[in-house]
């Protein structure tokens, strides 16, 4: 059964079905530019999803065919970023949402059509994987606006992409097409437009059908490894991995293999 909930005045949608949560950035009239209400809602939704043990996969996408998201809604900066205090409040909402995505205990996948610019690319890079349609374009453009790009955002890009690609994105502020973005590791798979929806759905379905306890253990390790060395604590990931061997799903996996049938995992 599918459920659909509206947040941020309908500018962010959450659809739930069969263990998959689909977050939709729903401002196609503005190429899904993120306003403050959307950033706050994105953080709220991700924190709530993280507490749901039945969840298998989270996807994030933009409404319509033209854009994943083109960054911040600049039209509201006169009210939401019109002082140092207001800017700090805005930045805290952005950081909270992005950190909630990165800390999600299940796989997160950005499904990218069209423009993925600025804050949109930041959201996508916080996900574990990025699947792109072949018309996707990627850029981060503070150098065209004389904006200071935050240290944490640079650190994330450098960790994911390396020094040279991060420098290229931020120094040039140029748009990269999907084939170049794939080669540079900005996205992980690219599909033709006429196959994108089906291929993305098939991949998400594959992840949702795999053993959730195993995947949560892997994700816990990945979240920990993303931290600075001094802040890491592998105990939770190790405990989750060991717990798999005491699970009913472990027995189901062995039985399904012996009986040559697909396993039916229940996350216990």
TrEMBL record:
Q: Which CDD domains match?
A: crotonase-like (cd06558)
List UniProt keywords, sorted A-Z: Lyase
Q: Which organism is it from?
A: Seohaeicola saemankumensis
Q: Which InterPro entries match?
A: ClpP/crotonase-like_dom_sf (IPR029045), Enoyl-CoA_hyd/isom_CS (IPR018376), Enoyl-CoA_hydra/iso (IPR001753), Enoyl-CoA_hydra_C (IPR014748)
On whether Ribonucleoprotein is a keyword of this UniProt record, the answer is: no
Q: Specify the superkingdom.
A: Bacteria
PROSITE patterns from the UniProt entry: ENOYL_COA_HYDRATASE
Q: Known PANTHER family for this protein? A: ENOYL-COA HYDRATASE, MITOCHONDRIAL (PTHR11941:SF54), ENOYL-COA HYDRATASE-RELATED (PTHR11941)
- Give the UniProt family note: Belongs to the enoyl-CoA hydratase/isomerase family.
Question: Which Pfam families does its entry note?
Answer: ECH_1 (PF00378)
Q: Identify this protein by name.
A: Enoyl-CoA hydratase
């Amino acid at each position: 059964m599918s459920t659909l909930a509206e947040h941020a005045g309908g500018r962010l949608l959450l659809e739930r079905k069969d263990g998959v949560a689909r977050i939709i950035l729903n401002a196609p009239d503005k190429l899904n530019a993120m306003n403050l209400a959307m950033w706050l809602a994105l953080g709220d939704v991700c924190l709530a999803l993280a507490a749901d043990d039945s969840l298998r996969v989270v996807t994030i996408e933009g409404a319509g065919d033209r854009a994943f998201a083109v960054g911040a809604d600049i039209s509201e900066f006169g009210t939401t970023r019109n002082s140092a205090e207001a800017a700090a409040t805005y930045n805290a909402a952005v950081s909270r949402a992005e950190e909630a995505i990165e800390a999600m205990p299940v796989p997160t996948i950005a499904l990218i059509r069209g423009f993925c610019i600025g804050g949109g690319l930041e959201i996508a890079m916080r996900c574990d994987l990025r699947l792109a349609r072949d018309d996707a374009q990627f850029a981060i453009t503070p150098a065209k606006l004389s904006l200071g790009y935050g240290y944490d955002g640079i650190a994330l890009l450098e960790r994911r992409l390396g020094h040279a690609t991060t420098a290229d994105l931020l120094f040039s502020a140029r748009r990269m097409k999907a084939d170049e973005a794939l080669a540079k590791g900005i996205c992980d798979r690219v599909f033709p437009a006429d196959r994108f929806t089906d291929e993305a759905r098939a991949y998400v379905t594959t992840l949702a059908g795999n053993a959730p306890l195993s995947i949560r253990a892997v994700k816990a390790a990945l979240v920990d490894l993303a931290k600075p060395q001094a802040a890491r604590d592998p105990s939770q990931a190790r405990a989750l991995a060991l717990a798999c061997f005491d699970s009913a799903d472990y027995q189901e996996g062995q039985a399904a293999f012996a009986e040559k049938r697909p396993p039916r995992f229940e996350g216990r």
